[in-house]
Amino acid sequence: MRIEQAEIIWVRLPLVAPFRTSFGTSHDRDTFLLHLTTDSGEEGWAECGAEPDPLYSSEFLAGAELVLRDHLVPRLAALGDDLAAHLVQPALAPVKGHWMAKHVLETAVLDAELRAQRVSFGHRLGAVRDRVPAGVSVGIMDSHDELLAAVGRYLDQGYVRIKLKIEPGWDLEPVRLVRETYGDIGLQVDANTAYTLADAAHLARLDDFDLLLIEQPLPEDDLRGHAELAGRIRTPVCLDESITSARDAATAIALGSCAVINVKPARVGGYLESVRIHDVALANGVPCWCGGMLETGIGRAPNLALAALPGFTLPGDTSASDRYYATDLTAPFVLEDGHVRVPTGPGTGVEVLPDLLDAVTLSRTPLPWG
Ligand code: NPQ
Ligand code: MG
Which residues lie below 8 Å from residue 327, measured CB to CB, with a gap of 6+? Predict the structure, then answer.
């Protein structure tokens, strides 16, 4: 396969409600799309998982665009006609880090390749389900009443598990209220690195609430701390930010740093590495679930394919489109009996709707290839 044209499309989509985490509040989703045209006549589309500021991880959108243009695309362009999705990671490996920039590039190439082969992401990755149970991530709110109302609406819609974002000052009480109000629901929390090991006794007070897991309580580079914490609390520890590769997953599992893994394709450099993480976790008896970065339909579609692999045994943050967007960039993903359908068409199985894209486009820039 050969790339004939590439372009970067910056978009800004309003969120249906502000989304607050321990690292900030988002009112819009800002990202860019990578759009490839290939010699097969098929296009490839992918969505960058980074945010404007390096607050979730060290990566950020402007940095991802720069590293794509100056460091990643030239290495792929050097492959000429021999470009294929499985060759992307090895070609980019000399460049350290920049998983989200690598992810958007490999995913667009994989989409184009699969469309030309008439094969779906699910088929290529090893999906064993045609629909996946949907969880929802609930941001930090201004009041307990607001939180309970939001959780109640999601439960009414059919979401099968609720994830509460927590931070110091917004943890025990919101969790207790949700558990007491809504009973025996699937409930878990995500701290996005907001605690330290000195908070272990405090976090142990979450033990009473039978949470499915606590996600990333400590800084991303503190694997030893997570192992220590896991010995001091009963809630299973799940890692998100700490895991950027299958090797990280193997290390974290061996150290006892996690009992569960949140696999986010954007965070780990793409879908092929995501499958390798899944394989390591499955072989070790560690359950996986598919996380997200508030993707539009373009990024949500391949996440659903990944979430249909056999080791993804917990509901993911693979919510319906209307959890985040009044108008998605693809036909919307909808909740059906608490599940979202895995696309079956070639590539991601979704089409970008041009008028909807135009309405949210900030800029289109050709990306020199070769
Ligand atoms: C997480 N996602 O699991 C992330 C982090 C996150 C669904 O909870 C704008 C864009 C705001 C991406 C806030 C969920 C975001 C974002 C949080 C990602 O840690
Ligand atoms: Mg997380």
Answer: 13, 356, 359
